[in-house]
Write a structure and sequence with these properties.
By secondary structure, the chain is of the alpha+beta class. Among the domains are: 61 residues, SH3 Domains (SH3 type barrels, Roll); 162 residues, Dbl Homology Domain, Chain A, CATH 1.20.900.10; 141 residues, Pleckstrin-homology domain (PH domain)/Phosphotyrosine-binding domain (PTB) (PH-domain like, Roll). Helices cover 42% and strands 16% of the residues.
Length: 534
């Protein structure tokens, strides 16, 4: 009953159909991802907008954040990717009013996707991304030289990972088709065609498509300068072909059931193991191999989002420079000298030794440093610089409610920032437990980002920093007020539930995502392929 000698069938030739050379770039691909209609985005148009408002009125709709929205404006709602937002008002198509925990404010509708009755599970894209990227990092090409700018280096790393994982995936599919399916078909006494179709689905069809897709990628791949590769056109050209994964993913639960029945019989266990050894495959059971296509189709969006993550972050330095230029009485080095990303912001009560007197401050957590400011007593939109803390030298400690022995004061919803030797201790208190937890999560995110930047070599060049600060200084001429005001700010404060103005000056908001793009159904189609959608 063991399989016969391995067959080296060369009949599977690669489709030589040509591709258009100028279909699109990664920016086009990002357009597809950001603007898809149902699974990855929000609907638009008059009729659909009315339907959204009807759902909101009966409390049956909420939104899931696709991107971080970190803002300096009290009237805007900040959130992290993956947060669930209660949509209160969606009258305006561009900006919605929503609530996260006890915070309310405006947020860009393009940053979220709708969830009705919370039936649809959310994908933690970036959380899975870092873990997924670790496996491929070892197989990436070596450094491209000290002269390559950070943006191009990061892009080259992701392009190399996409190409390497794609080649590995092709070998994986080939091993399944030649190592398992071909041998199983020889044993008609053990397997029927119906059984084989249930176990392996249309994986042979996936193999043929992926060979053609890899050939298209290879044509666009610039081996000497990976960062110049324009592989986005390959995804756009083959977007309809990815639909074949729908059949495979939908069949996968049936494959697991059928396989679980067979492996209870010893001869099938021995047979599958013999197939693996003859094909010289890694030591993973057959069900593990068959899971790979399901994981692969889910990984494509993660890789492509990551491809543009570094690009968006570099674009944020102009906005950070503009923010600094709006702060009164700034002291010390520029924020860009050490930081390049705003991670979280909000109000906290700061208690310092030895007086142990509480001060209400607005805190801004960047990578490597925490800046705190004081709001003007009359004009709350004006911020005065009051200091900063070096997060590389601070340890975050969760403080239990009750009397604190260091400050001899009663503490509620508190946390401490302590220097290694205990020379400096800052006690910070949030208004509610939920806010404290969000800050604790933000501090953890800051440390993870610093570590990730260190591993990937992410840096901002001195030229980029100087240019950003120069642009910011031009936007705030000498003698003019630097307050982070908006034309509608006072109007908003006078209303219990304000209505959105027709225009919002984007330069005053740090928004970590791309603007709205043209519509397409590519990523909507990709989203439909997952077998776990309820």
């Amino acid at each position: 009953w063991l399989p016969g000698p391995q067959s080296h069938d060369q009949s599977n030739t690669i489709d030589k159909s040509g591709l258009a050379d100028e279909v699109g770039s990664e920016d086009d691909l990002y357009n597809e991802f950001r603007s898809s209609s149902n699974r990855f985005g929000h609907p638009g148009g008059g009729g659909e907008q009315l339907a959204i408002n009807e759902l909101i009125s009966d409390g049956s709709v909420c939104a899931e954040a696709l991107w971080d929205h970190v803002t300096m404006d009290d009237q805007e709602l900040g959130f992290k990717a993956g947060d669930v937002i209660e949509v209160v008002d969606a009258t305006n198509k561009e900006w919605w009013w929503g609530r996260v925990l006890d915070s309310e404010g405006w947020f860009p509708a393009s940053f979220v996707r709708l969830r009705v009755n919370q039936d649809e599970p959310m994908e933690e894209y970036l959380a899975h991304l870092d873990g997924a990227s670790e496996g491929g990092r070892a197989s990436m090409g070596g450094p491209l030289g000290p002269g390559l700018p950070c943006k191009e280096q990061m892009r080259a790393n992701v392009i190399n990972e996409i190409m390497n994982t794609e080649r590995d995936y092709i070998k994986h599919l080939k091993d399944i088709c030649e190592g398992y399916i071909k041998q199983c078909r020889k044993r008609t006494d053990m397997f029927t065609e119906e059984q084989l179709r249930t176990i392996f689905g249309n994986i042979d069809e996936l193999y043929r498509f992926q060979k053609k897709f890899l050939k298209a990628l290879e044509k666009k791949f610039n081996k000497d300068h990976p960062h110049l590769s324009e592989i986005g056109s390959c995804f756009l050209e083959h977007q309809t072909n990815f639909q074949i994964y729908s059949e495979y993913c939908n069949n996968h639960p049936n494959a697991c059931v059928q396989l679980s029945k067979l492996v209870k019989i010893k001869k099938y266990v021995f047979f599958f193991e013999a197939c693996r050894l003859l094909q010289k495959m890694i030591d993973i059971s057959l069900d593990g191999f068959l899971l790979t296509p399901v994981q692969k189709i889910c990984k494509y969006p993660l890789q492509l989002v990551y491809l543009l993550k570094g690009k968006r972050r570099l674009e944020n330095i102009d906005k950070i420079a503009q923010w600094q230029s709006s702060i009164e009485d700034w002291e010390g080095e520029d924020i860009l000298s050490r930081s390049s990303d705003l991670i979280f912001s909000g109000d906290l009560t700061k208690i310092s030794q030895p007086q142990a007197k509480g001060q209400q401050r607005m805190f801004f957590l960047f990578d490597h440093q925490l800046v705190f400011c004081k709001k003007d007593l009359l004009r709350r939109d004006i911020l005065y610089y009051k200091g900063r803390l070096d997060m590389d030298q601070m340890q975050v400690v969760d403080v239990e409610d009750g009397k604190d022995k260091d400050f001899t004061v009663s503490v509620k919803n508190g946390l401490k920032l302590c220097s290694p030797g205990g020379e400096e201790v800052q006690l910070l208190c949030a208004k509610k437990p939920e806010q404290k937890q969000r800050w604790l999560r933000a501090f953890a995110d800051e440390r993870e980002q610093v570590q990730h930047d260190l591993e990937t070599g992410f840096t901002i060049t001195e030229v980029q920093k100087k240019q950003a600060m120069l642009n910011a200084s031009k936007s705030h001429p000498t003698g003019k007020p630097k307050a982070v005001t908006r034309p509608y700010y006072d109007f908003l404060l006078r209303q219990k539930h304000p209505t959105l103005p027709t225009s919002l000056p984007q330069q005053q908001v740090i928004m970590l995502a791309e603007p709205k793009r043209k519509t397409s159904n590519f990523w909507h189609n990709i989203g439909r392929l997952t077998p776990f959608k309820k």
